[in-house]
C-alpha cells in the first residue's frame, strides 16, 4: 500500500484508493459511530482530515487517539464534502503507533508562549508555527545554494576548529580535550594536541584561499561567538553564509548582497507560500509589505558618514526628546536602534551603509584613500538591523602588515594569509550573512532562538 505524505494527499489531482497516511494527531472529535481526526505529518502546515467509522480494525484504540499521539491509517483518499479542503481520508483500518498521555503531553490545542516552547525545544517543531519555521529554514538553505550555483560560485567547506581569529574580537570558544584522568575536567594545557585552538567565528579567511584559486566561492556552515548571546539577535552558535569573489571591489560586493537577498526572498515566496502566510497573519502584520519592498525596491546606499549625519539630524523626536539610547557621533559602531531607524523610519527600505571608520572594523578590510575609513559595507533591513557584513579585502601586503601591527595581532598566525598577497594577489571582496537573521527577516520572528532548531544558550544545552 502506498504511503502518501499529507502534502501529497492534499495536492492530489484525483481520488486514490488504498493508501496509508501516518502522522501525529492534532485533534480528534468523536461522534456517535465515527470520529474525525486532524492529522499532521510535518510535510506541510495543513492537516489532513481522516474519518474512521466504528467497527474498523483498530477502533478499539480510538480513546487513545489523543492530541500528540502517532497513528497510521489505511484507507482511501476521497473528495471532501466539507468546505476548507478538497480531500479527506476514509479509514479502513487504524493503528495506534504511540500514545501521548493527555495528562502529561505539553502541547495541547491552544496557543503556547514562545518562552514556554523554548523550554521544550524538542517538541516545539510539532506546533504549526515551529513546523513552518523549520520547513522555511530548510527551503532557505536550498535557495542559498541555488543562488550561488546559478551564479557560478563553488561551495567550499571551511574549518570549524581553527587557530586564527578572523574578526580579531576575542569572541572565540576554546577547544580543549577532556582530561582522561578526570573526564569532567578540561585540560587547557593540551588544547588541540598541544596547540591553542578555538571554534571558528567566520569561514572568511579560508574562503579567501579558495576565492584566490577557484574564483567565486561561498561557505555555508556553523560559526560560534562567545559574546553577546543574550540579545534577541545574537546567538552563540549560528550559521553563516560567506561568499568571496576574486577580481571584485566593494560595489560588486554590495550588488551581490542585494541580488542574493532578493533572490532568496523571491524563492521562498514561491515555494513556502502557505507557511509564510501563517507569519503574515499571526506574527507580523507588515510582513508582506516588508518583503515586497525587499523584492521590488533598490536598496538605499549611503556612506557611514552620511548615515551618521542623518542620525544626528534626527537625534531628537518631534517632541524634543532624545530619540536614541546610545548617542551618535562619527566613529561609533552603529547600534541596532540606529540601524532600525535608518531602515524603518528614514529610508523605509533596506539600506547599505559603506566606508566605515577603520577603528571599528576588522584588520582585513581594505583601507580607503582617506586613511580613516575602510571599504566595508553592512546591509541593514527592517526589524532585524544588520543582516550582512562585508568588505573589500586588503590585497596590498604592506598595508596589511601595518594594520596587523597596528592592531597588535600576531603576524605568525597569518603567514599563510599573507602568502595570498605575496603570490598573485588580486582585489577581492566578500560578505557574511547570518542565516538566522535571514529567517527572522522573512518570518518576522523577533527572537533568534525561535529560528534555530536547538538554540545554544546557558539555559538550552540539553541536546
Ligand atoms: O559582521 P560579521 O561579524 O562579519 C564577519 O564575520 C565577516 N568575516 C563576514 C565576511 O565578510 N565574510 O558577521 C556577519 C553576519 C552579520 O551581519 C550577522 O548577520 C551575522 O553574521 N552574525 C550573527 N548572527 C547571529 N548571532 C551572532 N552572534 C552573530 N554575529 C554575526
Ligand atoms: Mg558586522
TrEMBL record:
The lineage of its organism: Bacteria, Pseudomonadati, Thermodesulfobacteriota, Desulfovibrionia, Desulfovibrionales. Its EC number is 6.1.1.22. Gene3D superfamilies: Bira Bifunctional Protein, Domain 2 (3.30.930.10), Nucleic acid-binding proteins (2.40.50.140). GO terms for biological process: asparaginyl-tRNA aminoacylation. It comes from the Bacteria. It comes from Desulfobaculum xiamenense. InterPro entries: Aa-tRNA-synt_II (IPR004364), aa-tRNA-synth_II (IPR006195), aa-tRNA-synth_II/BPL/LPL (IPR045864), Asn-tRNA-ligase (IPR004522), Asp/Asn-tRNA-synth_IIb (IPR002312), NA-bd_OB-fold (IPR012340), NA-bd_OB_tRNA (IPR004365). Keywords: Aminoacyl-tRNA synthetase, ATP-binding, Cytoplasm, Ligase, Nucleotide-binding, Protein biosynthesis. Coiled coil: none annotated. It is found in: Cytoplasm. This is Asparagine--tRNA ligase. One of its GO terms (molecular function) is nucleic acid binding. Its main location: cytoplasm.
Amino acid at each position: 500500500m502506498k504511503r502518501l505524505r499529507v502534502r501529497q494527499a492534499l495536492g492530489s489531482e484525483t481520488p486514490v484508493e488504498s493508501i496509508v497516511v501516518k502522522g501525529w494527531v492534532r485533534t480528534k472529535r468523536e461522534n456517535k459511530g465515527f470520529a474525525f481526526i486532524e492529522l499532521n505529518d510535518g510535510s506541510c502546515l495543513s492537516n489532513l482530515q481522516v474519518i474512521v467509522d466504528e467497527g474498523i480494525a483498530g477502533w478499539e484504540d480510538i480513546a487513545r487517539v489523543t492530541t500528540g499521539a502517532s497513528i497510521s491509517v489505511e484507507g482511501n483518499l476521497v473528495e471532501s464534502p466539507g468546505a476548507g479542503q478538497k480531500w479527506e481520508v476514509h479509514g479502513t483500518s487504524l493503528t495506534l503507533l504511540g500514545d501521548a498521555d493527555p495528562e502529561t503531553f505539553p502541547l495541547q490545542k491552544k496557543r503556547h508562549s514562545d518562552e514556554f516552547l523554548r523550554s521544550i525545544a524538542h517538541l516545539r517543531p510539532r506546533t504549526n508555527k515551529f513546523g513552518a519555521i523549520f520547513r522555511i529554514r530548510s527551503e532557505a538553505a536550498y535557495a542559498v545554494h541555488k543562488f550561488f550555483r546559478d551564479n557560478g560560485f563553488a561551495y567550499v567547506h571551511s574549518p570549524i576548529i581553527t587557530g586564527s581569529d578572523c574578526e580579531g574580537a576575542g569572541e572565540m570558544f576554546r577547544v580543549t580535550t577532556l582530561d582522561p584522568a578526570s573526564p569532567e575536567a578540561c585540560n587547557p594545557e593540551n588544547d588541540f594536541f598541544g596547540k591553542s585552538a578555538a571554534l571558528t567565528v567566520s569561514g572568511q579567511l579560508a574562503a579567501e584561499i579558495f576565492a584566490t584559486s577557484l574564483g567565486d566561492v561561498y561557505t555555508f556552515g556553523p560559526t560560534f561567538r562567545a559574546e553577546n548571546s543574550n540579545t534577541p539577535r545574537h546567538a552563540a552558535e549560528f550559521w553563516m553564509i560567506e561568499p568571496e569573489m576574486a577580481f571584485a571591489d566593494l560595489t560588486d560586493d554590495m550588488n551581490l548582497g542585494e541580488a542574493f537577498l532578493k533572490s532568496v526572498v523571491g524563492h521562498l515566496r514561491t515555494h513556502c507560500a502557505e507557511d509564510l502566510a501563517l507569519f503574515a497573519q499571526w506574527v507580523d502584520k507588515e510582513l508582506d509589505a516588508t518583503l515586497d519592498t525587499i523584492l521590488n525596491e533598490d536598496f538605499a546606499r549611503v556612506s557611514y558618514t552620511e548615515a551618521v549625519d542623518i542620525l544626528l539630524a534626527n537625534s531628537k523626536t518631534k517632541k524634543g526628546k532624545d530619540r536614541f539610547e546610545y548617542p551618535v557621533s562619527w566613529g561609533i559602531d552603529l547600534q541596532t536602534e540606529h540601524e532600525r531607524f535608518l531602515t524603518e523610519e528614514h529610508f523605509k527600505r533596506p539600506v547599505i551603509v559603506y566606508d566605515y571608520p577603520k577603528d571599528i572594523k576588522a584588520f582585513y578590510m581594505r583601507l580607503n584613500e582617506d586613511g580613516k575609513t575602510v571599504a566595508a559595507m553592512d546591509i541593514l533591513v527592517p526589524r532585524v538591523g544588520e543582516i550582512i557584513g562585508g568588505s573589500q579585502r586588503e590585497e596590498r601586503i604592506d598595508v596589511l602588515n601595518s594594520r596587523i601591527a597596528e592592531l597588535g595581532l600576531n603576524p605568525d598566525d597569518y603567514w599563510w594569509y599573507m602568502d595570498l598577497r605575496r603570490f598573485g594577489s588580486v582585489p577581492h571582496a566578500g560578505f557574511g550573512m547570518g542565516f538566522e537573521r535571514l529567517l527572522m527577516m522573512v518570518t518576522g520572528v523577533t527572537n533568534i532562538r525561535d529560528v534555530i532548531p536547538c538554540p545554544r544558550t546557558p539555559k538550552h544545552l540539553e541536546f
